[in-house]
Structures are given as structure tokens and as C-alpha cells.
């Protein structure tokens, strides 16, 4: 489990493929502190297990399914990657609950500067689009952000300059793909409300329970 607050931007040093398994070698520094083999590191929003550690890198193995269903399929050596170690019990939850399970890949279709903020418009054609709500949380390449607008097959996020500088968003351009993870709480609420069971939240239910 993660918070979506990026700790470091690392770089992909190498990708090796053996049968249906890819091994990524990622250069970094901060996220290595206190990390051991078997720990999880969110890498561009994808939860990966550390299989090898060096003084300035870690390696992680990735299955073909993960490669094909995320932006990893477009990865090349030298690519900047958002990195975050798994949440510890003593850490503040400054972002939102992020699982590192990507729901789909979106496309950056517009980047607009408005005063001190930058607005990214993301096209996302997926059945998971229904879980995106205005003012709700979303993770883009592992970055915890707030949805500022929802349109037809697209949504927007407004980002402060500090977030741009401290993540790989500083290198992102219109037309590029980005990993999307919708808010887990939103998914549970949506499924609860739309379930066919008798446990639906109705107006009468809310009135009866003092709302």
C-alpha cells in the first residue's frame, strides 16, 4: 500500500527479457534506504517487488501481463520513473490510499498553464472511468492527485509547480501515455451502491440512520 507522494524520481537503467519475464534495473538513491529484498516499491504507480539491491539501484521482475497492460510496454533505458516505498504504520498518509494496481492507461491530450497551476487533461477510455469523480482522488504514474473536472471520456487534474518539479511530470508531453489507478474508496462505494443485494444505500436508509 502506498500514499501517492513520490519520494524520488529514478531512471530505468536496463530491461532484460527472458521468456515471459522482464527484469527492470532502476537507478535511485532515496528509496533504497531501509529497503530489503522482498519489499515493495511503486514504480510509476505499479507495485513491484525488489529482487536485487545494489548501492545505487534495485531490480524487479515483471510479468508480460503487467508490461502489456501498463505504460511499461513503452519503457526505454533512461526513462524517468516515479518511485515510492510501501507505506509504513508510522508514516503520515499525506496523499490517499494507493494500491499500485493500475486500472488502465490514459493519454495526455492537453497541458494548460493557468496562473500558478498546470492543468493536465487525460483521455481515459475504460470501463473503470465510472470510478472517477470530481474532487475525488486519482493516481497518475503513482502520483496522488485530485480530479478537478470530469468530461466525456476524459478528466482533468490541476497540479502545483512543486509536484511537477518533484516527479516525472516535468518531462511528460501531449500524446504520451500514463498509468491510471482510480480511488479504491470510490470503487467500493460505487460497487456497494450498484450491487443487486438488499444493502443498497437509499434515501430511506439515510433518513433512518440520521442523515
UniProtKB/TrEMBL annotation:
GO MF annotation terms: riboflavin synthase activity
Q: Which CDD domains match?
A: Riboflavin_synthase_like
Q: Where is the signal peptide?
A: none
Which Pfam family, any one, appears in the UniProt record? Answer: Lum_binding
Keywords assigned: Repeat, Riboflavin biosynthesis, Transferase
The residue ranges of the Lumazine-binding domain are: 1-96, 97-193
A biological process term (GO) from this entry: riboflavin biosynthetic process
Q: Which residues form a coiled coil?
A: none
Q: Where are the Lumazine-binding repeats?
A: 1-96, 97-193
Q: Which reaction does it catalyse?
A: 2 6,7-dimethyl-8-(1-D-ribityl)lumazine + H(+) = 5-amino-6-(D-ribitylamino)uracil + riboflavin
Q: Which domain of life is it from?
A: Bacteria
Q: In which pathway does it act?
A: Cofactor biosynthesis; riboflavin biosynthesis; riboflavin from 2-hydroxy-3-oxobutyl phosphate and 5-amino-6-(D-ribitylamino)uracil: step 2/2
Its EC top class is transferase
**What EC number(s) are associated with this protein in UniProt?**
2.5.1.9
| Role noted for this protein | Catalyzes the dismutation of two molecules of 6,7-dimethyl-8-ribityllumazine, resulting in the formation of riboflavin and 5-amino-6-(D-ribitylamino)uracil.
Q: How does it assemble?
A: Homotrimer.
NCBIfam families linked:
PRK09289.1, PRK13020.1, ribE
Which protein is depicted? Riboflavin synthase
